[in-house]
Design brief:
The protein has 236 residues and is α/β, with parallel strands linked by helices. The chain has 2 domains: 162 residues, 3-Layer(aba) Sandwich (Rossmann fold), CATH 3.40.50; 34 residues, no CATH class. It contains 11 helices and 6 strands. A hairpin with a 5-residue loop joins strand 1 and strand 2. One of its GO terms (molecular function) is hydrolase activity, acting on acid anhydrides, in phosphorus-containing anhydrides. One of its GO terms (cellular component) is nucleus.
């Protein structure tokens, strides 16, 4: 029979209120949990969404969270290499008197998906589909994907978006009361270690030590900077 736990339901809602799918939150308002589907790579997300298209749940509202490396369409930022995040933030803050016109067009993508859903033309999509549509509408795919998370029943993302607390916070992901599915979960340990690890080069350590030397020699918060300088010295 028709499902009643998600927005793709076309039949009458079951008289039984299953506590596993619906919880009461803030009084009378019912709470339907989202499904967060974590994969090891972005390529695997493409495979999952392709399979989703073949099911009866293809019309369920969804989104894919990914980095600017995959979704940024700004001609300058997208070709900048490793510092896309910094350049994007600078544009949004208008540091150099310039802004991102694509960011201001985010609502175009959201409205497009809403119209498709309204006319029952909505289908599961992939990152490439979103980026292609974003280029046509001149809208930011990165922030549009995040905005679509509000109304999505299924959210696809790499493991670290769910495991790394800093990424969770920056992406405004709240897993409390939600359903979490981890594909190929035997890779979780490696991903967890990576999330709590950081790599620095010897040249970066030496540069940090020189800056700390300057701070200490000029009596700038010596009590704070001397222990940090000692760490840099011991590591080098």
């Amino acid at each position: 029979g028709p499902c009643t736990g998600c927005s793709c339901s076309s039949g009458k809602e079951s008289k039984k209120d299953t506590s596993s799918t619906k919880k009461k939150e803030n009084g009378d308002r019912s709470f339907i949990p989202k499904i967060f589907f974590g994969t090891r790579t972005h390529k695997q997300i493409s495979q999952i969404t392709r399979e989703l298209k073949r099911t009866a749940y293809s019309s369920v509202p969804m989104t894919i969270l990914s980095s600017r490396d995959y979704t940024c369409i700004h001609p300058v930022v997208s070709s900048s290499g490793s510092n896309r995040n910094e350049m994007c933030v600078e544009l949004l803050e208008g540091k150099h008197g310039k802004s991102c016109s694509y960011y201001h067009g985010v609502h175009k993508l959201s409205e497009h998906h809403a119209q498709q859903s309204l006319h029952r033309m909505y289908q599961a999509w992939d990152i490439e589909d979103l980026v292609s549509l974003a280029k046509k509408l001149r809208a930011c795919a990165y922030f549009a994907a995040r905005e679509l998370m509000v109304g999505a029943d299924i959210v696809f993302c790499p493991y670290n978006y769910l495991l790394d607390p800093q990424i969770r916070e920056s992406m405004e992901i709240n897993l409390k009361g939600q359903v979490v599915i981890l594909d190929e979960a035997h890779n979780i340990e490696d991903c967890a270690r990576e999330s709590m690890s950081y790599s620095v080069t010897e040249s970066q350590l030496r540069a940090a030590r020189e800056e700390l030397d300057f701070m200490v020699n000029n009596n700038i918060r010596q009590k704070d900077h001397e222990p940090l300088r000692a760490v840099c010295c011991s590591l080098t």
